[in-house]
UniProtKB/TrEMBL annotation:
Protein's name according to its UniProt entry: Pleckstrin homology domain-containing family F member 1
Domain PH: 35-131
Signal peptide (from-to): none
PANTHER family found in the cross-reference section: PLECKSTRIN HOMOLOGY DOMAIN-CONTAINING FAMILY F MEMBER 1, PLECKSTRIN HOMOLOGY DOMAIN-CONTAINING FAMILY F MEMBER 2-RELATED
InterPro entries (alphabetical): PH-like_dom_sf, PH_domain, PH_domain-containing_F, PH_Phafin, Znf_FYVE, Znf_FYVE-rel, Znf_FYVE_PHD, Znf_RING/FYVE/PHD
FYVE-type domain span: 152-212
Biological function: May induce apoptosis through the lysosomal-mitochondrial pathway. Translocates to the lysosome initiating the permeabilization of lysosomal membrane (LMP) and resulting in the release of CTSD and CTSL to the cytoplasm. Triggers the caspase-independent apoptosis by altering mitochondrial membrane permeabilization (MMP) resulting in the release of PDCD8.
Presence of keyword Ribonucleoprotein: no
Biological processes, Gene Ontology terms: apoptotic process; endosome organization; endosome to lysosome transport; positive regulation of autophagy; positive regulation of intrinsic apoptotic signaling pathway
Subcellular location(s) of the protein: Cytoplasm, Perinuclear region; Lysosome; Nucleus
Amino acid sequence: MMDHLANTEINSQRIAAVENCFGASGQPLALPGRVLLGEGILTKECRKKPKPRIFFLFNDILVYGSIVINKRKYNSQHIIPLEDVTLETLPDTLQMKNRWMIKTSKKSFVVSAASLTERKEWISHLEECIKHLLTKTGRQPCTEHAAPWIPDKATDICMRCTQTKFSTLTRRHHCRKCGFVVCADCSRQRFLMPRLSPKPLRVCNLCYRQLLHSEILTAMCQPEGIGSSLHSKASSSFLGQEEEGEGKGTADITLSSEIQRERYCSSLS
Ligand SMILES: [Zn+2]
Ligand SMILES: [Zn+2]
């Protein structure tokens, strides 16, 4: 697909033009075999509100950025390897039509096109590139992806405790695991999720308990070095913890007996 364009003069010129628009704020994009297939403005659902973003589809990556001057200057460049992408078509909302979700292991977000035809074109080109890449590398499509962040405006109250009302003084936070908008009290914990970041990230209390639980199960089901592997894993997860969580989350899990471990492990299979 479009491979005949690779290493042609016209392709190099088009890629150089994109590099130029991003200037020093962007990465070099030219690579042997890389082809620029198309570009367009899509509306990206961001934390505060939907914003127009410029998107460039290459045969192996999707690049997007903020528009300073259309066709002249872009910044805040993001590069997504297409191998890691899966797509999901979404229903219209009152404000946004022709939506779909771009899901990757590190980050997932919703975009919308100006028309249904445009969405169809984007999705079919993206799918074709992804399929082509996966066939070439023999990799399986990515199944685990990051939860998209629920926009701030979607809720006035904490989505976990449903008590805290947000205001200018009471800030909204996002759980990096489920993407919910939560209050500070409901997201005091940090957890190391290497797929998302090398640093422990803010998670809501529910996700914290679930993550901890599955980490403990994994450690307990390992045939050797139960205690040691659990210890080393767990301690690295809590590095960024802001406060002692008053034992929250850990209280309901005891690691003591061999019997319990076996029960847990057999219930898993
Ligand atoms: Zn809360
Ligand atoms: Zn969560």
